[in-house]
Description:
It is a single chain. The chain is an alpha/beta fold. The chain has two domains: 2-218, L-asparaginase, N-terminal domain (Rossmann fold), CATH 3.40.50.1170; 234-352, Rossmann fold (3-Layer(aba) Sandwich), CATH 3.40.50.40. Helix content is 31%, strand content 18%. An eight-stranded mixed beta sheet has the order 1-3-2-4-5-6-7-8, with helices on both faces. It has a four-stranded parallel beta sheet with strand order 9-10-11-12, sandwiched between helices. Helix 3 packs across helix 8. Bound molecules: aspartic acid.
Amino acid sequence: xxxxxxxxxxxxxxxxxxxxxxxxxxxxxxxxxxxxxxxxxxxxxxxxxxxxxxxxxxxxxxxxxxxxxxxxxxxxxxxxxxxxxxxxxxxxxxxxxxxxxxxxxxxxxxxxxxxxxxxxxxxxxxxxxxxxxxxxxxxxxxxxxxxxxxxxxxxxxxxxxxxxxxxxxxxxxxxxxxxxxxxxxxxxxxxxxxxxxxxxxxxxxxxxxxxxxxxxxxxxxxxxxxxxxxxxxxxxxxxxxxxxxxxxxxxxxxxxxxxxxxxxxxxxxxxxxxxxxxxxxxxxxxxxxxxxxxxxxxxxxxxxxxxxxxxxxxxxxxxxxxxxxxxxxxxxxxxxxxxxxxxxxxxxxxxxxxxxxx
Length: 358
Ligand code: ASP
């Protein structure tokens, strides 16, 4: 991880971690075709230099490049690296807040990962970690990255009684809990935040803040960050018309530790999977059921009784449920190594009951 700084690290500052994404992307012909571009080209220090004149003088910035990737290529070792960088930053008394520039494709995964591994820590320390990105590359005529980055920096550094410490995301003038952010449109400038319960960045909405505090009150202990090479292998499978049992049996002789089943409607699974799922549970594969609809909660024993060994995802979408299951399986392994009889179900159940902000 290279570190670039424009202020000495001996004074209070906002740490900006660069992960890449379109916000750091460049288009070869930005005027004619801004949507044909390569993500993760510009260093985070240059993104900051570009907006420096608009940053209030009272805010000192330090930047550090964790990665510079197209986030569709996000890996688990990179999540480990980012999680450790965030925890280290939170522990540093000189860091007032953290901003992360990130590709929007997998913000959903990174948002829930940081909430579940660093959310309580950030809350206890009263520091905000703000994820942001953009839909247009850095050299597009109407690039949205600079204003998103400025909003994120301002939100990371505003007085604390406005909004508690925690893991948030800011896009298109709105902010939300990072675990609520999901890209639900391929190209709209507000794509990552349009369906997320959010507040205007300029004026925090009291009912949204009430929801944030309700989630935070229930998140009482962070889960451990898996070591780079210790992430359990978890796949997402979608139930659909014409489903085949082979889609499940295929995994029985693999090293897969868990399957997230993106079901129809309220998380229903095709009957063609029934016997092979029972076999999967016997093989020790963890099962979580969610909905492929993109909205709504998946509740236990609805619409039918759950099969033994399969948990409902609550409000978690399939990509979020996958990260939550990986962290739960890792937490189970660590708990058992420490002589505690906690299971992945105990950890996952704490996540699945987190309330939805409306
Ligand atoms: N493919 C890009 C990425 O996720 C999209 C974006 O940042 O908007 O890195």
